[in-house]
Amino acid sequence: GDVAVQAVDLAAEGITRVEIDLAGAGDTVNFGAVAASPGLAGLVVDDTGAAGTDTVNVNGAIAVGGEFSIAGVEATVLANNITTTADQTFNTPITLANNITITAPNVTFASTINADDATANNRTLTVTATGGTVTFAGNVGTTQALADLDVTSATIRLNAATYQVDDQGGNTVT
């Protein structure tokens, strides 16, 4: 079934960790604005069920005092920013539906990253690893080019074969 997490301060509600396991096919998780004090240990979505068209939509800004991880789903649509005090891991193809900023100690993108419609939208991705490493393991912009990719990190691992970031603007790697 579908899950919606909307406009909530999870830590204020006494919730210390949220794990959502999608067991079926065709499930959708919709995140609205999620705020959390440092007491929240993590926000995790995992699909251990049947293969299908499971989707995670990040529609509101997420601020978590722990990890943020998405694994096993067939698509993740980022329409808002994500900030965490622990690592972020995206083991899922990502589509940018807005200009996105990701901030965490370490960030791993294990699959593809594309804009939603490079012809109509100039999507940018800004990634800041406050602790050390950003890893790109999947192709970036091969289906829909990004307009800009800015990465700030002590270590940047470019493990994918193709990066197309030429829709508009410049790119920064620091």
Secondary-structure blueprint:
Elements: E1 3-5, E2 8-9, E3 17-22, E4 28-31, E5 34-35, E6 42-47, E7 55-58, E8 62-64, E9 67-71, E10 75-78, E11 82-84, E12 88-91, E13 94-96, E14 100-109, E15 113-115, E16 124-136, E17 148-152, E18 155-158, E19 172-173
Parallel strand pairs: 1-4, 2-5, 3-6, 4-7, 5-8, 6-9, 7-10, 8-11, 9-12, 10-13, 11-14, 12-14, 13-15, 14-16, 16-17, 16-18, 17-19
* Helical fraction: under 10%
Order of helices and strands: EEEEEEEEEEEEEEEEEEE
- Tally of helical runs: 0
Q: Unreliable runs, pLDDT <50, ≥5 residues? A: none
Largest sheet: 13 strands, parallel
Beta strand count: 19
- What is Rg? 15 Å
Q: What separation lies between the terminal Cα atoms?
A: 42 Å
Inertia-based shape: globular
Strand content: over 45%
Structural class: mainly beta
Distinctive features:
19 strands; 13-stranded parallel sheet; six-stranded parallel sheet; mainly beta
Descriptive report:
By secondary structure, the protein is mainly β. Helix content is 0%, strand content 49%. It has no helices and 19 strands. It has strands at 3-5, 8-9, 17-22, 28-31, 34-35, 42-47, 55-58, 62-64, 67-71, 75-78, 82-84, 88-91, 94-96, 100-109, 113-115, 124-136, 148-152, 155-158, 172-173. Strands 2, 3, 5, 6, 8, 9, 11, 12, 14, 16, 17, 18 and 19 form a 13-stranded parallel sheet that branches. The relative contact order is 0.13.
